[in-house]
Amino acid sequence: MKLIQKISRVIFSRATIAFLLLAIQIIVIIFAYLFFSEHLLYFFGGFTVVSTIVVIHILNNRQNPAFQIAWIILIFALPVFGIFMYLWVRSQLIPKKLKSRLKLLHQKSAAFLPPSEIPSSEIKNPELKGMASYLSANNRYPLYSNTKVVYFPSGEAFFPDLLKELKKAKKFIFLEFFIIERGKMWNSVLEILKEKQKEGVEVRVLYDGTCSISLLPWDYPETLASYGIACKQYSPLKPFISTYHNNRDHRKIIVIDGKVSYTGGVNLADEYINEKMRFGYWKDVAIKFIGNATNTFTTLFLEMWNIDAPYTEVFLPYLAKNTTKESGFLIPYGDHPFDQEEVGKNVYLDMIHQAHECVHIMTPYLILDHEMITAMKLAAQRGVEVIIIMPHIPDKLYAYLLARTYYEELMDAGVKIYEFTEGFVHAKVVVRDHNCATVGTVNFDYRSFYLHYECGCYLFEHPVIPSIEKDFQATLQKCQKITIQNCKEYPLWKKAAGKILRLFAPLM
Fold first, then answer.
1. Domains of the chain: which residue ranges?
2. How far apart, in whole angstroms, are the C-alpha atoms of residue 77 and residue 504?
3. pTM for the complete prediction?
4. Angle, CA 248 vertex, CA 317 and CA 143 arms, to 5°
5. pLDDT tens, 311-355?
């Protein structure tokens, strides 16, 4: 089994696919030289004309300029492969069907959710009012108050609390994760799920299909079904079938009885609770909600569960009315890749633009488009303290090399960058001005902003925010500050590799 998983990792890796595509390009060039040597000018001239037409079409699309530039470079650098790759991507039917299906599901779930607990007319703070208008009115994610929130500064702190809450379940348990891997963490959860199912609790598990090529057996949903647990994989990987395999379910959502929910960076695998060390200490976070805000996470889960169903179940029986009393405000939100609305990215942008004193960021990846770079630089130049905590030990070398290409430009504008020397940072946290924060699954990279299903929660003047800031400051004490001199002394080959990778960052 382990051998098959290792082989699968190699077959489906981006490096393997890139190598195969490059090989196809070379074969076409050799074929053209051998069989059309007398007409090479016409052969490549024809591809130049077609390339130009395709580029004009790309420039007139409603698309982020970074994606446009990446496609244009690819088409002119590798015209044969680039043209057919672009046409193939644009002609895919599955993403178009998913877009329609998600729109319908989101409209139905929004109808089940109650309106914002505080009317827009009664919101006095303009920053909260603006975000509530964007997320509530435009995206149908209600504003809540009276929801208790608990922040966990590590996977080890989150894990026992999760087990305790799972054991309390009386009606249903929903789990949606990007990664599930057998080991202490998942096995402990699974034993509770089995017991709860025997007690009559409805249990559903949804995980991303990438697990099936490296972490779980292909037929694992059938294994869970034998325990009475309903299970689905989102988009199991199949070789070269559709580009929608590029859109992964990166969410981490747990809902228990419609009363308690969790999200954050922690997946159900042992490295997230540091039972297994892969890249030094794994710094991650999770956040728990007790109250009506859980209803949004319930609908987010049910939307994904029903995405490939021939019908749409009624969500209302899974929504609960809670009587929790708590101060502060929060808006849980989701994001998906087919609506041309980058919710996760826009929440970050708004927080940075609205900052007066500080913006504190923890992220595992830093692969930024022009808008995000400009926002960070402008905030720092306005006198806002912008601090980014990054991993010192990366889990993906190419992503780290890419991130390093942004360091010097950001620092020149006054942004401060630190690296967590004890290992890898997987947390996705932003705290602004000590009264606003967001925690969730959204990384600062193209995949999270544009390609993945994501989720998070926007918090404003909530009593949990000091705990989030305290964790940021504690993590900062375990970091080294990156300087301009560090950037200048960085190995030349790593700088060159990062700059080359940056050309194609939106397509990676």
1. 2-90, 118-328, 343-507
2. 12
3. 0.87
4. 45
5. 788 899 999 988 888 999 999 999 998 877 899 999 999 999 999
Q: Do 343-507 and 118-328 have the same topology in CATH?
A: yes
**DSSP code per residue over 469-491:** HHHHHHHHTTEEE--HHHHHHS-
Listed in sequence order, the residues at least 6 apart from 284 whose beta carbon sits closer than 8 Å to its beta carbon are: 154, 155, 264, 265, 266, 272, 426, 427
Question: Tokens standing for 416?
Answer: 């401060």
Q: Rounded to an integer, what distance in angstroms lies between the CA atom of residue 150 and that of residue 286?
A: 9
Distance CA 283, CA 86 (A): 38
Residue with tokens 């009559």: 200
CA distance 30 to 408: 42
Alpha-carbon distances of 430 from 127, 171, 426, rounded to whole Å = 16, 34, 13
Displacement of CA 490 from its chain's centroid (Å)? 29
Contact between residue 136 and residue 331 where contact means Cβ atoms under 8 Å apart: yes
3-state secondary structure 32-76: HHHHCHHHHHHHHHHHHHHHHHHHHHHHCCCCCHHHHHHHHHHHH
The CATH superfamily holding the domain 118-328 is: Endonuclease Chain A (3.30.870.10)
Task: Tell me whether residue 45 is exposed, middle or buried, using C-beta atoms within 10 angstroms of its C-beta: 0 to 12, 13 to 18, 19 or more.
Answer: exposed
- Output the pLDDT for position 10: 43
476: left (phi over 0), alpha (psi -120 to 50) or beta: alpha
Which tens digits make up the pLDDT trace of 370-407? 999 999 999 999 999 999 999 999 999 999 999 999 99
- Region of residue 195 (left: phi > 0; alpha: psi -120 to 50; beta: else): alpha
CATH topology of domain 343-507: Endonuclease; Chain A (3.30.870)
Handedness of CA 110, 116, 119, 125 (dihedral sign): negative
Candidates 53, 68, 440; CA nearest to 265 is 440
Q: Which token pair is 231?
A: 């299970």
